[in-house]
Input
Amino acid sequence: MAESGTGEKLKVFISYSRRDSTEFADELVAGLDLAGFAPFLDRHDIAAGEKWEERLGGLIVQADTVVFVVSPEAVKSERCAWEVESALARTKRVLPVIFKAVPESEIPEELRSRQFIRFDGGAGFARPLGQLAEALRQDIGWIREHTRLSDLSARWEARGRPETLLLRGDDLAAAEAWADKWSPDALRIADVVRDFIVSSKKAEAAFFESARATQLRIRRSRLLIGALLAGVLVGLVGWINQSCIADQWRWWTVIRPYAAAQVRPHVLTAGQERALNPGESFKECAQDCPEMIVVPAGSFTMGGDTKSEGLPQHPVTLAKPFAVAKYELTFADWDACIAGGGCNGYRPNDLGWGRGRQPVINVNWDDAQAYVAWLSAVTGKSYRLLSEAEYEYAARGGSTTAYPWGDDLKLNGQAMANCADCGSKWDGQQTAPVGSFPPNKFGLYDMVGNVMEWTEDCSHSNYDGAPADGSAWLADHGGECGSHVIRGGSWYFYHGYFRGRATGLRQTFNARDVNVGFRVARTLLSP
Output
């Protein structure tokens, strides 16, 4: 399969002339799709006054590679020439294939020196298709990262190079390692990408320098406080773990007062909890915490017909109702955790899309665990991540169709989710505010699209031996806990990435990313 390190298919844009190459382009799309790629092309006529450069430019930006179909009409086409120039200007990899021979002098000058793959030599279709697939697989990981960094640096440049959009931590280290792997035979790294990485390094260095200065001030303050404390406290400091003291101090001075004022008056009593019925909702805080929906007990067949959907299919029974967050966790919810002394004080980058009701992004699995640990502490209740089985069950909402709302991507012409081609105004651009689309039959919003969501489960290659009771698949069942399962698809990827039995392709991951967030679950007392 043509996949990168994170399981994403290589995206290939087909540039062709509709005057003489439509059938060939369709055949090429089908062949590349079977070969494991994600090909796409533009099928629209150009309407009078349409800003076609903007539409086509967006498609080219999304692509990892542009395949240019050489034909008599293509080399004369103003639009095809523009597509090639635009791809090269964005330092995209361009692979020319010859469908119908033309004089070399008529081929765009920038492509003449490149190796052509010929479909006009009488060798049939399969052989040159294999040659094209092999060419596309060359340096696939490096090309995929080239596309991602080009997109991030372009957004940074377009918004005036703000520091909030720069890389941090693991993302920056990965970008530096990628740049170090460049060779003269590879695509040129655009100046704006190099500036983006260099500026990120400088910003991170400045951050650490500021952090060191802050730590120095904190240490000096602690020394001063220690000098003023009674002798007995000075003695205790020598043998009690410093982190334990810091945790206790934060509990008594920040977390406990926050819980008393904002949370505990709203926490359900045991009687109220046992009286909950499926479909009812509750919220255990004054504001800025997840609203929860009671999901009924039930059974379903987990998995699908393909590896990406999860094999083998197997029955799962959830014997007790449980509660699931109505929406993906928002930035407002996360920022409340920071204000309440939790989440390790980490403030995720919102990329300038806003906080509030935007779903939180740039959080890894450990960050999600920090949030549910804090929420459990301030409420005294058992909040957690959903297991993968619970996620699929809740996302389906009792349906067995391709999507929770039916078998078509749209419902009566209305966009039902946010993905690269779902038809919403946020498609392929950014996350949508939570609750922007209709809920499923359980009353849950955005279970597919918008952001992928962390689950409790450790990674596993298939469903052989999967728990049948809906519990999480952890290390004691053979799971690989260096990474964890995410579900649901995102704003950046095409709908094919979340069609897996209405709940999204299964992927394993363990990093902070603009496509990944989470929602919480809560264990309920039995009636």
User: Anything to note?
Assistant: The chain has three domains: 11-138, 141-240, 263-522. The radius of gyration is 26 Å. The CA atoms of residues 87 and 387 lie 42 Å apart. Residues 191-228 form the longest helix (38 residues).
